[in-house]
Amino acid sequence: MTDIKLNFINESNDQNNSEIVFFQKNVATDFDELAVAWKVIKNCATGWHHEFVYPMGMEVSAEDSWGNEIIKPMKASNGQLFHVYQDSSGDQLAYYGPGASRKEVQLRNDLVRGAINANIYKGGKLLARKTGISPAQKAAFQFKPTLWVGVVSQVEEGEVMNSAIMSDINTELGLLGVASADIVMTGGGTGPNASKFQFTLENVKYV
Prior knowledge:
The chain has one helix at 163-167; strands spanning 4-10, 19-23, 39-41, 49-54, 58-63, 74-76, 80-87, 90-98, 105-109, 116-122, 125-133, 138-141, 146-152, 171-174, 178-188, 195-206.
């Protein structure tokens, strides 16, 4: 599975030099949890473009209750279960075995005491996180082959976005089978001719 080459193109009438956020939603939970701003494009004016890659692979990492995090996240695939445990040198993160679901990456807290946080990365950028995983509990991550995109302000990569921001974003771009594509933003402007920002996939090439 090769990474997807994407090219954001600003063809909008935006007057505010808006920021564009891309993120994924963890669908392994029954409730709408807050998402992490995976990629934020800034200062891309009308008539400009910004190329980036959506990696197919992902990595899992863990933080302990003291704020320490594994230096090197581990490569993770759907269907795998990882766990945090303690040995003579301290807390460790390791692959445990097949998970309960072939669609999820799971991380279990096998410490005697102390909660942990679970992080998922794509391309070295934080994609999703679960906090406060108690001993004997596990976090589950599942992502559809889609990217959510929207116009935001004052959002930084790696930050958890609040519910007000997420409620304003309703564009989901399907990437299943896509090798490369342009993501074209239109709309915007001021006054009576202003319109909503829209994002469309164009010049799509499939695997």
